[in-house]
Amino acid sequence: MCNPNIVKISEHPQLSETAANWFHAKWGIPLEAYTESINVCVEQKNAVPQWYVVLEGDNIIGGCGVIENDFHNRKDLTPNVCAVYVEEAYRCQGIAGKLLQFVCDDMKERGIPTLYLLTDHTSFYERYQWEFLCMVQGDGEEEPSRMYIHQEALL
């Protein structure tokens, strides 16, 4: 069992290039897209975009981002948690759940209590208090995908 450390790229800019390469390798989205979004996260200090990685030692074993729109037609459903990934060897250890809760807590602290997530998974996110909202059309996709919502009450 590993002892994962979840970090905000905005607070660890030295991880920017490594993180961009890692996300690119996992999802096949052009490296430039990740590099640009992560640079905005680090340089502009806006609430969105944000990027997070899970470290074990110096190795990235998981991560995700929060962006305005995760390549779908419902521009009103924003911001979106995206690129959620945990390395296969580290799955089924609760890392994704901890990462998702960390992101939700961080965004709530930034004044954003409602997040959306586009996925093809049918039951995974329900374990972590995400609720199915509707089907949306992903850019360039033939079939619609599932949109989930997670809401935290602001105190």
What's the count of strands? 7
Largest sheet: 7 strands, mixed
In order across it, which strands form the biggest sheet?
A: 1-2-3-4-5-7-6
- Termini separation: 35 Å
Mean pLDDT: 93
- The helix-and-strand class reads alpha+beta
Rounded Rg: 15 Å
Number of helical elements: 3
CA-based shape:
globular
Extract low-pLDDT stretches: none
Strand percentage lies at 25-35%
Order of helices and strands: EHHEEEHEEE
The percent of residues in helical segments reads 25-40%
Structural features, described:
- About 25% of the residues lie in helices and about 30% in strands.
- With about 160 residues, it is an alpha+beta fold.
- A seven-stranded mixed sheet has the order 1-2-3-4-5-7-6, sandwiched between helices.
- The protein is globular.
- The chain starts with a strand and ends with a strand.
- About 35% of the residues are buried.
Short description:
It is built from 3 helices and 7 strands; from the N terminus they run E-H-H-E-E-E-H-E-E-E.
What is the strand and helix layout of this fold?
Elements: E1 5-8, H1 16-27, H2 31-44, E2 50-56, E3 59-67, E4 80-86, H3 95-109, E5 114-119, E6 131-136, E7 145-151
Parallel strand pairs: 4-5
Antiparallel strand pairs: 1-2, 2-3, 3-4, 5-7, 6-7
List keywords for this structure.
globular; alpha+beta; 3 helices; 155 residues; 30% strand
